[in-house]
Design goal:
With 284 residues, this protein is mostly helical. The protein has one domain (3-281). It is 76% helix and 0% strand. It is built from 14 helices and no strands. The radius of gyration is 19 Å and the shape is globular.
């Protein structure tokens, strides 16, 4: 693979993973353009996810540390005597509560659906439609008002509902996992930066699972199926990490000052552009 191809795919993955614009849709389009398949796709996918995972862990290292401490507190809770859960334990509990539904759907998608069904769900038409539809949903949730709740106000029900929306993104590229969870959090009344922060925290375990699965598929693939090397993968991981960290920082700073409207506009333009370009370029 050329360095330019690696650069483009890495930047696409890193920049879009944590923004509400759908990394899967963008990476799917890039991979199709460069004809990535088989072992090459598994390697690049795995290393790109590692890079963006470390980006979010580093940016939110205090929250990640608090969640780990809270997890140990939850383990000790059955043996403790009374008392309310701490903020750290609540954070860990909310992250855990957000995961099961999405994980079940992801596993079902991977192992129960036929390849033809998966290909149909990964078409450019689906990416275009979901970009527009869920962009409109984000717009509505962002402007409906009454959204000043903080992490301390979150309930188990909130965490389950926000986390469950990730199942939709697992099935339909273009939805945006981060976008739909931020939409759900805003609809439930959470302040913009809090919605983005919780979205990224609950996304980290799923991203780790996706990256690990890509590595398993890579280990089981035929070495003769691709031309990408481990050094190519390391380049992808490094570039995805750097671009991912910068995109997280930019998103959090932007949301302190303005709404999600720029991302909504981008989603609309992307969806409309794909609908126009697909028949002209013969995309499917």
């Amino acid at each position: 693979m050329s360095f330019l191809q690696l650069l483009i795919i890495s930047l696409v993955q890193g920049i879009t993973e944590w923004l509400p614009v759908s990394s899967s849709g963008h990476v799917l389009l890039a991979a199709s353009y460069f004809d990535l398949e088989g072992r090459d796709e598994y390697l690049i996918n795995a290393m790109a996810h590692i890079g963006t995972l470390f980006a979010v862990l580093l940016y939110f290292w205090r929250d990640v540390g608090r969640a780990f401490e809270g997890g140990f507190e939850l383990l000790k809770a059955p043996f403790a005597s009374g008392g309310r859960r701490s903020a750290k334990a609540n954070l860990a509990l909310h992250i855990l509560a957000s995961l099961p539904i999405a994980l079940v759907v992801m596993v079902a998608y991977e192992f129960l659906l036929a390849d033809a069904q998966k290909d149909a769900m990964r078409s450019v038409w689906v990416v275009a439609a979901t970009s527009i539809i869920f962009g409109a949903a984000l717009w509505w949730a962002d402007i409906k008002g009454g959204q000043s709740r903080q992490q301390r106000d979150m309930t188990i029900r909130d965490a389950v509902l926000i986390g469950a929306t990730q199942a939709v993104a697992a099935l339909l590229p273009g939805t945006s996992r981060s976008g739909i969870t931020m939409t759900a959090a805003r609809a439930l009344g959470f302040e913009r930066t809090e919605a983005a922060r919780f979205s990224m925290l609950i996304g980290a375990p799923l991203l780790a699972a996706v990256g690990a699965y890509a590595f398993l598929r890579l280990a089981g693939s035929d070495a003769g199926e691709g031309i990408a090397t481990l050094s190519d993968g390391l380049i992808v991981a490094g570039l995805s990490f750097a671009s991912g960290f910068l995109s997280i920082w930019a998103l959090m700073e932007l949301l302190k000052r303005m709404s999600f409207l720029p991302f909504v506009i981008y989603r609309f333009l992307l969806g409309i552009g794909l609908l126009i370009a697909a028949p002209i370029m013969g995309l499917s």
